[in-house]
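Protocol step 4 of 5: obtain the predicted structure for the target chain.
Materials: sequence only (see below). No template structures provided, no constraints applied. The aim of this step is simply to have a reference model before the mutagenesis design in step 5. Sequence pasted as it appears in the construct record:
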Amino acid sequence: MAAVMQHASAYLERFSSLQAGRDSEPNWLRERRELAMERFLRMGVPTPRDEEYKYTDLRALSDGRFLLSPDEPGGHARPAHLAGQRIAAACGDSLAVAGPAPPGIRVMSLSEALVRGEPRLEDRLASIASIERHALCALNTALFEDGVVIVAEAGADSREPLHLEFGPGRVARLARVLIIAERSSRVTVVETYSGLGEYWRNAVTEIHVSENARVDHVRAQLESPQAFHTGVVQAGQERDSRMSSFSLSFGARVARNDIGTRLDGTGCDCSLDGLYAVRGHQLVDHHTGIDHAMPHCHSHQLYKGVLDGNARGVFNGKIFVRRDAQKTDAVQSNKNLLLSDSAEVNTKPQLEIDANDVRCTHGATIGQLDADAAFYLRSRGIGEAEARKLLTYAFATDALARVGVASLRERFEGLLLDRFAPEAA
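Step 4 output (structure tokens):
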């Protein structure tokens, strides 16, 4: 916190400048921004002194130079397109929303939604992701300049993925996404983050899943190896809803992802899954949270990590089962594969249970490649590097199987194979 307060004037100057040009914003949003800025300045950029950031050092971000500078290194390369219909792209200093969207799906920039007076914004925007718990979410809320709003109208069924792409540029540094699935609707959204050079991306996605609705959300973090990436994905679910989240994290020098959902109605179902593959001196940190607030809900988590070189990984998964959340069924698993003796993982699966009629399990494993399996492959004429690649792929397969879109799953498989190809080993 002290590091941030040292540079408070820079943040306040930027905030004041932005607020001066926000006369057209509704009062409720301006007030939430002011509260968010106040909260950020009290909390500061997290440091290893904060228990939740014990293994992740973000002090290099404390002066805000990556967020507050007018220009971003790396030019204006187009972000990577993986699958589905490109529905919005942030690159440079602008946000482009493409169309037309599938039937029953409305996609708009946040600035456009505010001009239209979109009725759902006040209830959902900056109210699902907590500025009290996440200092960097508070910073995003205070400073973001535009964002993407996706509304799936009641009864709409769109399984073709909508692709949001975030590349280099001022607007994309503070990426903001709001997804609202109305009653009995279904929507699939893919977010891709990529860039060039050294920068800091601070992204926030809020998801509201109404009664009997379904949201499938995929987040691909493919940032530059010199980048810092901090992201928050938070969902709120109503009765009989389903939400699936898949986090792919291959890029960035330092990446921190906070992903969670609150099951706020009976009969909810959610899955939070992910795959991280890092090497060199990369660090990737996943903190997940599932809050079982009501009875008869199900949750599943599977996170797998592959680490090579001097890479470090962190996984902290929390499952909360509240007093009234009887008949909860929750499963959590974190499995890690270390490809070198110098790679390191810190994993901490957690259960906090206040109900007495539940079924909850959790576990974590850390291991190396199976020497017998590698010997078997080599005895069949497969080279050492190729055998290592095949065994790495086999380890990650069941995590990638959680990606429901076949074309996207194939792209992720290709990225994984390329990442640990023999020539890159």
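Step 4 remarks: The first helix runs from residue 2 to 6. Residues 312 and 344 are 5 Å apart (CA to CA).
Proceed to step 5.
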